[in-house]
Amino acid sequence: MNALLELERRKDECRLAARGREQRIQQRVRAELSIHQPSALRSVTCRYQRGMLQLRGEVDCDYLKQLAQEYARRVDGVTHVVNSIHVIDPSETVSTTSF
C-alpha cells in the first residue's frame, strides 16, 4: 500500500514539474515576441506541451507570421512549432466610421 501511495505522489510531483516547465517556456516565448516586435505581435498567443508549441493570433503579413515562428523556435525546450497564426489583410478590415 505504501508503495502505491509513493508511486502516486511521485506521479503528482512529475505532473506539477511538467506544468511549471510548460508555463516557463510559454513565458519565454512571449518575452521573445515582445522584445523583438512588441506591437506587431501583441495579439499572438502560445501554448506549449511536451516540446510542441502552438502559436495563435493575427498579424498583418506573412513576414510577421514567419518571424514569430522563428523567435519561438529559438527558445530552449521548443522542439516543434505549430504556426496557427492568421494573416489579416489590413485593407480588408471593416471601417466603423460613419459618413
From TrEMBL:
Source organism (scientific name): Rubripirellula lacrimiformis
Pfam families: BON
Record-given protein name: BON domain protein
Lineage: Bacteria, Pseudomonadati, Planctomycetota, Planctomycetia, Pirellulales
Limits of the BON domain: 21-89
